[in-house]
Amino acid sequence: MKSTYKRMNPAVFRALAVALLLVAGGGAPADVARMDDPATGPYRDGPPPPDGLAILPPPPVPGSARDRADKAAFLATRQLAGTPRWRLASEDVDSDAFAHFACALDLQLDSRTVPALTHLLDRAGTAAVVDPVKRHYHRPRPYLRWRGPICQPRTAHLAQNGDYPSGHAAGGWMESAILAELAPDRATWLLARGRAFGESRMICGAHSRSAVEAGWLAGGAALAALHGSPAFRADMEAARRELVVLRRSAPRADPARCATERAALGQSIPGYP
Q1: I need a surface site. Which of 67, 134, 192, 249 has the fewest CB within 10 A?
Q2: What proportion of the chain, given as a percentage, has pLDDT over 90?
Q3: Residue 97's CB: how many other CB atoms inside 10 A?
Q4: Distance between CA 159 and CA 156 in Å, rounded?
């Protein structure tokens, strides 16, 4: 399953692919065509995506009370390095929704067992709301401003991709809300895990507190707009029917793993809220 929050911007992807095609002199790559395929690409049959710059508050001004709160949260959460909650934050860097929502949904799923749900999550994304805001503010990530360990590699891509808002927090919140609609009896657990997924980005040190909070807002805004897409609504119903059947037969989530996750999520977060 492709990530809903680490996926390359479609326009950028197409431009790069076409450039490579011209250099190579070959035919049109199938995956470039699929980006514009209304049945497989991002949902575009509804209204335009919400304007993230109009919806989200601006990031904290350097030296302001909010900025100082971001710094305090970053420095305090460095205390979690090496703990179970830190390890969970590291696992949350990778974007397999079926893995990080398994305990909340109490199901072991994968892309082969739930093709309709995989298709839905692959198409639903937050980039149209998040990316313009990131580009506009280009706020440095907290570990570039303050000293301390982070839970993932310090790559050039990570450093160049702005802090505000958190795309991981936006995508995780969107996925948790989609799953909560499809399995409303598990909504409390799913939405709590979606919140914790965003908090993992702050614990990891890859995003500031304010960026995570803005990510949750961006994820909710993106999902609200998706409901205006007939194709999205149709895919939701297909995934709902699929999940009803699978919930009768799919294996439950691993109890030992879920106990470990519950223990990690039960740790208090220094400096937050």
Answers
A1: 249
A2: 82
A3: 23
A4: 5
Quick check: 37 pLDDT over 90? Answer: no
| Cα–Cα distances in angstroms (integers) from residue 63 to residues 68, 164, 205, 215, in the given order | 6, 16, 19, 22
CB distance 184 to 53 below 8 Å: no
Cα 128 to Cα 226: distance, rounded to the nearest angstrom: 11
Query: Would you place residue 36 in the very low, low, confident or very high pLDDT band (cuts 50, 70, 90)?
Result: low
Look up residue 71 and give its amino acid: K
- The pTM assigned to this predicted structure is 0.86
Res. 38: pLDDT tops 50: yes
Residue type, 219: G
Rg, Å, the chain Cα set: 19
Whether the bond between 165 and the residue before it is cis, its omega within 30 degrees of 0, is: yes
CB atoms within 10 A of CB 267: 14
